[in-house]
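This section describes the prediction task in plain terms. A model, or a person checking by hand, is given the sequence of a single protein chain and must write out its three-dimensional structure as a string of tokens. No templates, partner chains or ligands are provided. The sample shown here is typical of the held-out split.
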Amino acid sequence: MTSRSTGNGNAPEGAGSAILTLPNLISMARLALIPVLWWWMATDHVAAAGWLLGVIGSTDWIDGYLARRLNQVSEVGKLLDPLADRLAVATAVIGGLVFDILPPWFAWAIIAREAVIGLGALVIGLKAGTKLAVRQLGKLATALLYGAVAFYFVGKGMAFDPLVWLAWLVGIPGLVFYYIVGVQYFQDALRAVQNRPA
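The expected answer:
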């Protein structure tokens, strides 16, 4: 997942409160596509939903890259960018479960990780009063799960088994990494609380 954070909870030099910047507009466009993703799943356009998820995921790096390149890093952008990632994956996974697209065990494994580890790390991180640094393994896990769900949707929607096999080839490692980095984030949050100034 692309990050615009410096990893120490502080905005990098040049960060501001601007909202209508090019990177933020791209993030907003990615967010605006999420209802379309849900609609296509609900209306049984599974392959189209998969392609759209692939577009949302593959453009993840653009907003972060432009923010740094154009010196337009902002607090709003640091919220919108990961929010678009989280909502896109959550929408695809929950929709895949609701509309019987994804195998239930795979969908529930992702949901359980987010509910338990993600929420716990978030609560502790808020208590520590700082932002957790994004880990490279977390970016890799998110990218693999993006790809796995998109491949599965397209493969199932087009009845093309090789894409479904590819989905499992990247999805299983992605799920394993997702749990590993979730535990790492939880440990980071605990350390942040312990090291918080009295």
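For orientation: The two ends are 32 Å apart (CA to CA).
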